[in-house]
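tool_call predict_complex ligand=adenosine-5'-diphosphate
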Amino acid sequence: MIKTFEDKKEEQVETHSDVTSFDSLGLSEPLLKAIAYHGYKKPSAIQAKAIPLIMNGEDVMAAAQTGTGKTASFALPILESLLNKRQSSQRQARVLILTPTRELAAQILASLETYGKYVSSRTAVVFGGVNINPQKNKLKNGVEILVATPGRLLDLYRQKAIRFDELDTFVLDEADRMLDMGFIHDIRKVISLLPKNRQTLLFSATFSNDIRKLAKSIIKNPTEVSVTPRNTAAATISQAVYNVKKSQKSALLSHLISQHSWEQVLVFTKTKHGANRLTDYLKVAGLKSMAIHGNKSQSARTKALADFKKNKIRILIATDIASRGLDIDQLPHVVNYDLPYVAEDYVHRIGRTGRAGAIGEAISLVSADEAKLLKAIQRLIKQEIEIKTCKNFKFEKDDTKQNPNQNFFRKPSKKKRSNYYKR
Ligand code: ADP
Ligand code: MG
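tool_result ok
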C-alpha cells in the first residue's frame, strides 16, 4: 500500500505544513478548483511559505528537498498573477521559467496545464534536440508563460523569435542542478536580456555557497525560505545496501525485481553504456526495461518516460543527468545499480521515491570498489544505511581488490568477446 500525506506521523512529514488549506493562501477560485480537482488537500510546507510571498510580489529564493512540491510553489502564484493581466504581444512572454533539462521543462508545462486548467493563459515550452521552427511559430503571437532550457532559449532569441520587453517574472528552477550542469554562463546571458524591473524567483533543492553567490548577483534583496536541512533524504524513504560483487549486480537486480514482484522501479547506472548493457541483460532475463540517457534521441526519452509513467514498462534505467527532477507519481522503488560519484547525487536519485509523503524504498548495490563512495554518502546524509542480504540469492564473496577500470583493459574471454560485439 502506498501511504500518502495524511497517513504519516507528524514529525516524519517534512512536506507537511500548518496551513490547512489552499484557500487561506489567497488564491482565487479558478486555481482552487483546479487544485481540488487534482486532489491536493493542503499545501506542502514550501508552498505555504513561498506562495504568499510570491503573491506579494517579493523576490524569493526557496530551497526544499526534491519532491516537496516546489513546482506548484511558483506555478500557482504565477497563474494567479496572470488572471487579471492583458495578453502579451507578438514574440513576447510575461513569465520565463528556466530549467536545466528537456524532461523537466516538459514536466513544468504539464503542471502549469494542470494547475491552470481554468485559467486562460497561453503557454509554450522550448528545448533543444528538436526542430526549432514549430517553437518559433508557437511564439509568434506571444505567450504568457514560456518554459525553456537555456541553450534553445538563447538560439530563439538570436533568431529574434522571442523578446522580453513585457517580462514581469523570471523563475530559475532547479538552480543547483543548473550550476552542476555548467549552465552558469547561459544563465547570466539570459538574465542580461531581461528587464531590470521584474520579479525573480529561484528554486533549488539545496542552498550551496555557489547558489547563494548566483542569487546575490541576480536578485536584489531576496526573501529566503527553506524547509528542510540540506542533504537529508525524506524520512519516508527506507534505504538499504546489498554488498555484492560487481559481476553479480545484474543477477541480483533481476532476482530482486522478480522475487519481490516490483511493479515499477527506476534504476540508476553510472554510464550510458552501463544502462544499455543492463537493458540487454534484463531482456534476456525476461524483464522489459528501457534506458534514458544523453545518447538517446529526445523522442526515445520522452516515449520511455511516458511508457514508464503509464506502467507499460516496469523498469526504467537512467543516468543522473537524464533523470534529474523527473516527477513520477509515487514511485515505490529506486535502485542504485552503481553508486554515484558525487554523494549529493545519491540524495537526488533517491528523491525520486517517497515523493510528497509517499513511502518509498531505495536500494543500492555496492561492490568492493565502491566502499569509499558509500562512506561519503553516509557522511553526507549523516546516517548509516542498513546492509541487507537476500534469501535465495547466492552471494559470491567479493574479495577482489578491484580497480574500477580493470574491466576496460582486460581482454574479454572468447565467449564474452562474441557477446561484446553483439552489444
Ligand atoms: P519538487 O519540484 O519539489 O521536486 P514537484 O513540484 O515535482 O516537487 O512535486 C512533487 C510531487 O508532489 C508531484 O507529484 C506533485 O503533484 C505532488 N504535490 C505537489 N504539491 C502537492 C500537495 N500540496 N499535495 C499533494 N501532492 C502534491
Ligand atoms: Mg522541481
